[in-house]
Amino acid sequence: MKYILIVFLFLSAIIYSQELNCKVDVNFQSLPVNNRELLVDFAGVIENYMNTTKYTQEDWGERIDCTLNILFLSAGSDIDYSAQIVVVSQRPIFQSTKKSPMLIVNDGQWQFRYQKGQALYPNQTSFDPLTSLLDFYALIIIGMDMDTFGVIGGTPYFKRAQDIVNLGANSNANFGWQSSSAVYSRWGLVNDILSERYSAFRSSIFSYHQFGLDSFTKNGSVAIQNIVYLVDVLWNMYQQTGSINSVYVRTFFDAKHGEMIEYLTSYNDTEIFAKLIKIDPPHTSKYSALIP
Question: DSSP letters of the chain?
Fold first, then answer.
């Protein structure tokens, strides 16, 4: 009976395991010494929260590797802080030792309260400036991962992230949660992801990963065509509108431009890089270097 119980508990841990394997790095060197001492446990608290909170009802397998790099900018008191957070996630590439970058976001608009020894509890129905941002990015990470395993498979998680944005925008502590004309905003990211305007692009994310990256060792030429297909989807959008002004598309290329260059260098039509210059202007110099 004892061994049966042990096996049951082991299987339960697998079935209900959390989704993220998150590493947290904190830099508070710009703060006064007193605040640094009050934040000595902060990295561990955040890491524990991200890795023990259950965000889905899925029978989750391998956890998603991600990192949070938190740079404290200022302290208004012993508990009031302003910080910048860089969120990075990646997924394995099938039959490869490589990993595919999924998200690289630099978010400089985070204000919250934290007291040393504070316990954090997930509650996605009410807004908290600290945990709501963590939940938002956890759901974005999971949604982006799910989009690579099923066509627009991440929608339930993106909708929950959108709910958090709306809670934040309507709260008293709405810094960073409202619609913005800035290059990056949480509101812009999740609303673009769920917009019908970008549905064709988002749908191509699945084939890019499953029949592109994951299939490259099996059939490289077919895999390249599936990577090219994503570019062509965006190119058609560019031709119709004359520009692509999307937080979602920009965020995609911030993570993926290096990977796309790596896989497309062997493609026999360098016009693909001319298209990418139009679609993804911030990385023009890297694409231009590949055009004869």
Answer: -HHHHHHHHHHHHHHT--SEEEEEEEE-TTS-HHHHHHTTTHHHHHHHHHHH----SS---SPEEEEEEEEEEEESSSSEEEEEEEEEEEEEPTTSS-EEEEEEEEEEEEEEE--TT------TTS--TTHHHHHHHHHHHHHHHHHTTSTTTTHHHHHHHHHHHHHHHTSS--TTTS---SS--HHHHHHHHH-GGGHHHHHHHHHIIIIIITTTTT-HHHHHHHHHHHHHHHHHHHHHHS----HHHHHHHHHHHHHHHHHHTT-S-THHHHHHHHH-GGGHHHHHTT--
> What are the tens digits of pLDDT across the range 16-64?
578 999 999 999 999 999 999 999 999 999 999 999 999 998 888 899 9
| Cα 74–Cα 117–Cα 69 angle in degrees, nearest 5 | 45
CA 126 to CA 287: how far, in whole Å?
44
State the greatest distance between any 2 C-alpha atoms of the chain, in Å, as a whole number: 71
Q: What is the pLDDT of residue 185?
A: 96
Q: What is the pLDDT of residue 3?
A: 39
Predicted confidence at residue 9, as pLDDT, reads: 36
Please say whether the beta carbons of 114 and 39 come within 8 A: yes
Q: Per-residue pLDDT tens for 163-215? A: 999 999 999 988 999 998 889 999 999 999 999 999 999 999 999 999 999 99
Q: Tell me the C-alpha distance between 90 and 20, whole Å.
A: 11
At 13, the pLDDT band (50, 70, 90 cuts) reads very low
Output Rg (C-alpha) for the chain, integer angstroms: 21
Q: How many residues does the chain have?
A: 292
Determine contact, residues 202/156, Cβ cutoff 8 Å. no
Contact status, residue 169 vs residue 177, Cβ threshold 8 Å: yes
